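Notebook, bench 3.
Goal today: get a predicted structure for LIM domain-containing family protein from Hibiscus syriacus so we can plan the truncation constructs. The sequence was checked against the plasmid map this morning, with no discrepancies at the termini. Length recorded as 288 residues. Pasting the sequence as submitted so the record is complete.
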Amino acid sequence: MSAYGHQMEREFSGQSLLSPGDSGTEIGSRYIIESGFYMTSYAATIFIAGLLIIGVLLVTLVVSLAVMLQSCESRSKGMVEIEKERNSHHYCQILALHGKLNGFKPDEVPPVCRSLAVRHIEAVGYTRDLEFTMRMIESFFDSISPSNDSVDVVLMDIDDILASDPRSNKQDGCIEGAMYRKQRRTLELYMKLHFRGWSLILLSRKPERRRIVTIENLNSIGYSGWSSLIMRSDRETKMETSEYISRRRRALKEEGNEIISVISSQMDALTGWSLGIRVFKLPNVSQF
């Protein structure tokens, strides 16, 4: 074949690969379309299921974070409330101490402190305080004995125990119940000390004109055998209570008595002169 014939054959072969009117650019475009993303229906199902699972996990994560955040906020709020209650507790303790020292009246105590005092009694806190104090007093007297000449005396405040009749066993409320326990335990302590031979002197802030009624009340609830009962004379009713009690203790001392202990729930009986070897303060129901 001639050279001209070979050239014609190559041109014809090249043109037969293209349809009429095609160009190189059109070939490139068709290649891009044919190379697009393709998957079977089974693969598509798996892909969609995976997207749904991821979506559910994301929603679950968001909900969990929201719950955790709310829990943290609640816990933080609880801590704030606890701290607030602790602050109120410390405040009322300080106020109660100064109230005892200065003789605050019940209406001078803030409502928050009265509320805490009631809650303290309801939670059996007062009973624990009372029992601990009584055990401490009994432990002290277990370690000593009265002298044979009967000059060793124990001074006991009776005004609290005569506030109401312990035989009535009132249990209508936590305050009444606490008062009853205090009166009962004080009588038990009195009987133990009396049985062991201690000379017991009873102290009252009431005027002398009420002596007969006071003795009848004491006898009716089980008190007997005391050495003496101190009550205010007409002249002493004008004195401050702390001064009246201090004067009576000093008079006992000048008469040759040795005051071993003073037992009371009121601060006016536990301050001043001639307090003896050991003083014991019983927890007071009316104050926190």
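The radius of gyration is 47 Å. Strands lie at 152-157, 199-207, 228-232, 258-264, 278-281.
Flagging this for group meeting.
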